[in-house]
Amino acid sequence: MGRVPVGRSKAAAKAIAQSKQSLLSFAPIVERGGFVDEDNLEGIEPEEGCEVGEGDAASVEEKEKKIRRGKWQLAWVIKWRWLHFDQKNGNNFLDFSSNPTCITTLIFCSICRANKNCKNPFGTSGSTNMKTSSFHAHGQTKDHKHSIYIAEVKAGGQSSMAAANDRQQEAAEKGVICLFRTAYAIAQGFVPLRKYPLLLELQQLNGVYVPSMYKNVMACSRFITFINKVLLDQILEKVKASPFFGIMLDESTDIRFVGFGSDGCNVMTGNRTGVAARLKEVNPFMTSTHCLSHRANLCVEDVYKNPTVHNLCDEVDQVVNKVASFFSRSSSRLQQLQALQDELDFKVLKVLRIQQTRWLSKGGAITRMCECLEPLLKFFKDGRTTQTRKLYDRLRSLKFLYALHFLGDILAVVNQLNLEFQAQTMDVTSVAPLCKATMAKIQVYYLDKQVDLNGFQLDSRGYPIIPDGGRCNGPLDELRSSVKGNEYRDVEMIKSIHGEDLEEVLEFQKNFGTSLLEGIRTRLQDSEATGILSKFHFLAPINLPSSVRELKAFGKFEVQELGKFYTGMINEAELAEEYSLWKIIASEEWKGKTFVDVWGMIYAHSIWTKKYPNLLKLAMVGMVQCYNTASCERGFSRINLVKNKFQNQMGTEMVDKLVRISIEGPPIAKFDFETVVQAWKEGILGPIRHDPVAVLVNMAGCERKGVWWGLKKAILGKVVPHICKHPEDAKTWI
Fold first, then answer.
1. Cα(309)–Cα(296) distance, rounded to whole angstroms?
2. Which of 397, 393, 382 is nearest to 488 (CA)?
C-alpha cells in the first residue's frame, strides 16, 4: 500500500481500511492448503496503483513511481498457489505500530511450512520480500521440491510413495537400457566404438530419452563387457549342464572333450604325435573327425586330379579366371559390361575369380560365368584386340560351353551338400542320409541316362541334339534350351556337325560323375571316424522304417558296433534291450521327429531318463560330436570384420568380446537387456560403488528410511550434480 500522511483525507483512511479488510477476508481462502479456486477470483486484476483520494492531482504515471514494491497483488496467488498467510501464530500481517500509514506483509509457502525440516524463510519465519523474482526463485529450490514430494506422499499414503519410486526407477532403467541397446547394436553390426556418441546423439535428436552420462567410448566398452559376461555365463551354463564335451579345432579355437573335429592338417590328425592322437591316449572313447565340409571340398579336388577329366577342368578354370581378371583390371570394361547386361535385360553381375582357399568358390564362380555368358559373348564379339578375339573363340566352343555348364550344374549339388553340413540344425544322424541323397542325385542326373554315342538324334539343322540330364532349370537344362543347331542364343558356335565334340564332353561327364561318387564314398563314408558317426543314425525316429519286419531288424548292427566302441561307458546287453523297446515306441509316438528333438525331450523327463540310461548316454555323445569346423571359420571371418582398418589398434580382449556377441548374441529385438542391466547394477565385474549411476538405478525404489535411503540422499545431493551435464538430468534423478 502507498504511504498516506495522517489526516490527509477521509478518502485515504477509507482506502486503507478497505485494503486491510480485503486481505483479512482473503486469508482463510489461502489457508486451506495454499490452493485457490480460480472460478471465485474471476474479475480480479492486479492493482496498478492505490487511489488515495479524488483530490490527488498526480498523474497515474507519477503515482506508480510512488507505489512501494511490497504492494500485495491477488493475481500472485493464482500464479503461485502455495503463497500463504497464517494468523494462528499471532503474527500481525498489517502492522501500523511504527507507521499507521504503512502496511508490512509476511509471506509464507504453505507447502514448505508443512514440512518441519524445511529451513527456508518461506517455511519458517516468513519472508518480507515482495518481489515476484523471489517467488520464482523459491519455486526452484531443492527445499521446495522436496516439500512437494513429502506433501504428495502424505496426501496419497504409501501407495503414492511406491508409485513415485516406481516411476523414478522405470525412467532410470529405460535410459540405461537405451545405452546398453546402442552398445549391443555396435557389437553386432561391426561398427567402430567411436561411433557410440554419434548414435546416442542421433537417438536424442529423434526424440528418444538418452541420459547425459555414459556417452563416451569408455562407457560403450564397459557396457560391451557386461553384455559379453552375461552371454558367456549363459554359454557356460549350457556346457556345464552337458555330461560330455566335444573338441572343435582349426589351429586356434576352444577345446572341449568327447569328440574331436579339425580341418585335417597333419598337426591335428597325425597318427603318433597329432593332437587327436594325444587326446585319444587320455580318452579312448574320443572320436577324431576330419571336418565334413573340408572333405566335400577335397572330393572335388580329387576329381580334378583325375587324368581323364583334368585337362578340360583346368581349361574351364583358366578361362573363368582370365575373364574375371580382364574386367577387374579395368573399370571402363566393367562399366561397359554392366551397361550391356542392363541393355539385354540381364541381372547386373560381376564375374568372379576361383579362390582355392574357399570351399564353395569353384562352383560359385563357374555358375556366375554361366549367368553372365550371353552378355560376355556379345562384349568379346565386338572386341578388336587379340585377347578379346581369343576369349571369344574359347567361349563359343561347344566343348567349352558344355563343360562349363556341366561343372556349374554338378558342383551346385556338391555345394548344397557342403552347406547342409554347415547348417546349425545339422546333427550326427544326418551325415549318412545326406551323403546317400547326394550320391543318388549324381547317379540320376548325370550317369543313369546312357546315350548311344553312335546314334545321336539330329535337329532340324542336322546337328546332334544335346541329351537330357542335369538338374531341373539348372545350367545344363538352360544350355540345352539355348542351343539351336550351331547357334547359342544368336551366337555362332564352334561345333562339329558329326558330334565328335559332344561325344567327348559326354565321356567327360561320365568320368567326372563316377570319380565324384567314389570320392564321396571314400572321404565321407568309409573312414573310421565317419563310419562310427554314421552308426548314430538309428537313434533318429525319422530314419526308422515303416514296415514291422524291417523295424525288427533295424539298428541291430549299429547297436553292436557302438556298444563295442564305447565298452566301459555303457552296458552292451542293456543297450540292445533298451533299443529294442525304444524303437517300437518311437515308431508309433515319435515318428518323423529328429534326433535332437526326441533325445532332448527324453533328457528333460526323469521317467524316460531312468528307462533308457545307456541309450541316453549314447545319444548325448552323438550330440557333441564335431563333424565340421564351420563355426571356427565363421569366427575367423568375424575377427576380420571386427578388427578392420578402422579398429586396427583394438586389443585381443575386446576383439574376443565383440566376436562372441556378434556370433552368440540373438537379434537385438530378442535380447534380454534387463538381465544385463541387473548384472550391471549388482556390479558383477567389480564393486558397485565405482559406478554411481548403477547405485542410483539400484536404489531408485528403496524406502525413504534407513542406511540405504541416507546413502541415496547423499548421492542425489552430491554425486548427481557432478555426473550430470545438464540440470534437467539432475532433476530426473532427484
1. 18
2. 397
The pLDDT value given to residue 715: 42
Other CB atoms within 10 A of residue 584 CB? 14
Alpha-helical regions (H) of 242-274: 266-269
Grid cell digits, residue 614: 545307456
How many other β-carbons are positioned within 10 Å of the β-carbon of residue 586? 20
388: cell is 578379346
Task: Enumerate residues 6+ apart whose C-beta is below 8 A from 207.
Answer: none
Of 518, 507, 452, 499, nearest to 311 by C-alpha is: 507
Q: Which grid coordinates are listed for 342?
A: 542392363
The set of long-range contacts for 233-242, using a CB threshold of 8 Å and a minimum separation of 24, is 235/664, 242/620, 242/623, 242/624
Nearest-5° Cα angle at 496, 495 to 501: 85
- Name the most confidently modeled range: 64-68, 282-286, 655-659: 655-659
Residue-wise pLDDT tens digits, 486-542: 888 888 898 888 888 888 999 999 999 999 999 998 888 755 445 677 788 888 888
Q: Grid coordinates standing for 567?
A: 565298452
State the amino acid at position 538 in one-letter form.
Answer: F
Q: Across the beta sheet with 491-492, what order do the strands follow? A: 483-484, 487-488, 491-492
Angle between helix axes 475-482 and 361-371 (nearest 10 degrees) is 20
Q: Where are the beta strands (DSSP E) in 457-499?
A: 483-484, 487-488, 491-492
Q: Please write the tens of the pLDDT for every residue from 645-685.
A: 888 888 889 999 999 998 889 998 889 888 888 888 776 44
Nearest to 183 by CA among 175, 173, 193, 170: 193
Q: Are 626 and 259 in contact (CB under 8 A)?
A: yes
Is residue 288 within 8 Å of residue 260, measured between CB atoms?
A: yes
Reported as a pLDDT band with limits 50, 70 and 90, residue 72 is low
- Report the 10 Å Cβ neighbour count for 603: 17
Contacts of 360 (CB under 8 A, 6+ apart): 415, 418, 419
Residue 592: phi, psi to the nearest 5? 95, -10
| Residue 334: per-residue pLDDT | 92
Other CB atoms within a 10 A radius of the CB of residue 44 amount to: 14
Q: What pLDDT, on a 0 to 100 scale, did the predictor assign at position 75?
A: 67
- Taking CA atoms, 237 is separated from 19, 232, 240, 248, 598, in Å, by 80, 9, 5, 19, 22
Give 127's contacts (C-beta < 8 A, 6+ positions apart).
106, 107, 108, 121, 134, 138
CA dihedral 56, 62, 68, 72 (to 10 degrees): 80
Q: Which cell goes with 405? A: 555348364
The answer to whether 132 and 124 have CB atoms below 8 angstroms apart is no
Q: What is the mean pLDDT of residues 119-126?
A: 82
DSSP H helix total and E strand total for the chain:
34, 8
Short-list 143, 159, 8, 144, CA closest to 83: 144
Could you read off the pLDDT of 230-272 as tens digits, one per residue? Answer: 999 888 888 777 776 665 555 444 346 677 777 777 777 777 7
Closest CA to 214 of 667, 680, 709, 682: 680
Q: Which amino acid is at 486?
A: N
Instruction: Check: CB of residue 696 under 8 Å from CB of residue 720.
Output: yes
Edge-to-edge strands, sheet with 259-262: 246-248, 259-262, 287-290
Nine cell digits for residue 169: 526407477
Dihedral-angle region of residue 379 (phi above 0 means left; psi in -120 to 50 means alpha; beta otherwise): alpha
Closest CA to 120 of 142, 151, 88, 104: 142
Q: What is the helix (H) or strand (E) element at residue 512, kind and residue range?
A: helix 500-520
Phi-psi bin for 469: left (phi > 0), alpha (psi -120 to 50), beta?
A: left
